[in-house]
Amino acid sequence: MEPTTNATVYIVDDDASVREALAWLLRSRRLFSESFESAEAFDAMLSSRPAQRQPCCLLLDVRMPGMSGLALFDLLAVRGDLATMPVIFLTGHADVPTAVDTVKRGAFDFCEKPFSDNALVDRVEQALAKSAERLAQLRERSDLQVRLRDLTDRERDVMDLVVAGLPNKLIADQLDISVRTVEVHRSRVFDKMQVKSAVELANLLRTEK
């Protein structure tokens, strides 16, 4: 798998030697990383930066002094960050049942210590790909909302009936306007929504739901 470009792997572990080893491993696979010694430090970083716009994932130790990895995971889940920031837990044998439970609650995966370097990086790359896909979906949805806001009320009325499958004549009758007026509004809707057919328009609007 090709590395995801402009991506960041966040490492949160209280053990400096683990952070350094993971950072070196990621560099060897051309992956950029940022390391934090505590969940509190990572949370403070997130709070001080704009919303994440580039692919990322989080390598998170389960047990740490202060805020645990599990507590940080719950915080990220409440904020809705897990979709764009997949979490891979780094866990000891005793924590495996807990890690399995977090996967059921939305964690991307867990890797038991000592872990296979190749297997871990493979999962990191898969997590980054998932993050990139989700961010792309969010950008598309945001772009769609901008296009919809550019429509006039009448254009939206025509669009709704076009998507419902009505021909121009029935749309004109229902809205009490001329067929020519329907044609004009229909053409403007297609231009603003950047589509060429009613089917393409319907498929586009389906992604909004």
UniProtKB/TrEMBL annotation:
Keywords: DNA-binding, Phosphoprotein, Transcription, Transcription regulation
Modified residues (4-aspartylphosphate): D61
Keyword Transcription set for record: yes
InterPro entries registered for this protein in UniProt: CheY-like_superfamily (IPR011006), Sig_transdc_resp-reg_C-effctor (IPR016032), Sig_transdc_resp-reg_receiver (IPR001789), Tscrpt_reg_LuxR_C (IPR000792), WH-like_DNA-bd_sf (IPR036388)
Domain spans labelled HTH luxR-type: 144-209
Keyword DNA-binding annotated: yes
Pfam family, one: GerE
Xref: CDD domains: LuxR_C_like, REC_FixJ
Location of the Response regulatory domain: 8-128
Matches recorded under SUPFAM superfamilies: C-terminal effector domain of the bipartite response regulators, CheY-like
Name by which UniProt lists this protein: Response regulator transcription factor
Species of provenance: Acidovorax facilis
Source organism phylogeny: Bacteria, Pseudomonadati, Pseudomonadota, Betaproteobacteria, Burkholderiales
